[in-house]
Design a protein that fits this description.
The chain has 8 helices and 27 strands. By secondary structure, it is an alpha/beta fold. Bound molecules: nicotinamide-adenine-dinucleotide. The site of nicotinamide-adenine-dinucleotide has 22 residues, from helix 3 and strand 23.
Amino acid sequence: PLAAENKSRRVPAHVVFRRLPPHVAAPIAAKFLVVGGGTAAWSAIQALVRADGVQPHQIVLVAEEPYWPYNRTMLSKELWRSDIVDHAPLPDPPSVEYAYKHVAPPAHIAVVNSTAVFLDPDQKYVRTKSGVHIAYDKLLLATGATPRHATSVAPVLRHPSIQPYLSTFRTFSDYRALRQTITSRQQPVVVIGGGFLGTELALALTAVSDNVTLVVSEAGVLFRVLPRYLCHFLAAKLENAGVRVLRSAFVSDASEKDGHVTLQIDSTDQPQPTSITTSHIIAAVGVDPCTQLAKTAGLEIDRHDHGVRVNDFMMVEPDVYAAGDVASFHDRSLGRRRVEHWDHAVVSGRIAAANMAGARERYALQSMFWSDLPAVDVSFTAVGLVDSRLDTVAVWNLEEEAVRDAPSINRFADGVVYYLERSEIVGVVLWNAPKGAAGLRRARALVDAKTCVRGLDERTLAALV
Ligand code: NAD
């Protein structure tokens, strides 16, 4: 019954997700059950469909979002420069280019559009919030992560009158809601958090608002990732592009009146508190892995990174696998860690799926991540441990550029930053490096070899990648 035809004539020759009715009386049996509708799940389904001996009708996806799997990375980037506000809900095929489309060969995948709330790994079944009971042979947990609320970092925002104005930003629905509520360029928007999302989103929002404020608790943006001079440089670039960046800042008071919230923001940069009246406050203050389902089964959660512990094969225990943001995995070069980036979701999802289908593949590739900030001419890719608490050495091409409030500063045009542990390279950022796989491949090799930089001169360092 799971392989019923999708009747839509618009379906191109690729995977077709077919939404099951919300209340299925009879239990479902899935050879391969994938829980989660994000990138890791999508990548796993692609790999399963390609695996020898796997039939698409043996795969069931439990996904709580009402959309086809889509590419989340665009939510804080390209979409804001487009006029796209719609994305085909299940079960229709995707109508816009950013949905994941290219799954070969053509396949029919059944989707239960609900949240998986209970897992019994002994009886091997999952139950959904909508009451569907799904037995499995092999299970993949690709439940991702959920955003932290603004109230976790700014207790003054807890008052019920403030709640309607607060949001997090993680899904296509979040994007659409925010996009639809910003109706004029004068509308003030406040983003709290200077990590990947806050930085990218604040800059992207300048495409629709002339009044974007980024509230950052640290002294610059991407402070936990980049060396300090780059955080300051990037914050200045954001300001030059029209984002008001309040550094070393926190929300000290909030009050609601006539459909708006007035925030008081204290900052060590400003002698007086800053007052901003807005109706949109977006928290971008990190995510927590979604481990609730794993916890219902008593699966092991890592004490340090809070993910579901998997071995080199992305296996939690026989017949249960995890991939993507939720997985605490064993990185053979860098030790146990959890990674919240797209490429890791793709690679780990693929490897978990291959092993579910009978392969014996270890997770050995060093995943990469990237950030695109086109409005400030910055784009970087990175591999390994990219953590600003580590020592760094870097090689730069510098250019002179006038930036507001800093008339002539050295512009970090392009360069390479090496992150070091005991003088060994454990992470690399390729800043505005020419696109291409070769530099990335060399960066991966440097991290895997834990290359020692002691005694290397500038020319040799520059030639490493
Ligand atoms: P993040 O982990 O990148 O950054 C969290 C940020 O929260 C910190 O940098 C800090 O500025 C802020 N913060 C934490 N505690 C705070 C406090 N007490 N007061 C004020 N601010 C505080 O998480 P994010 O930026 O929210 O992004 C969400 C997720 O999306 C992450 O998993 C991230 O990796 C992912 N993402 C990745 C990319 C990319 O790879 N290019 C882009 C966007 C989002």
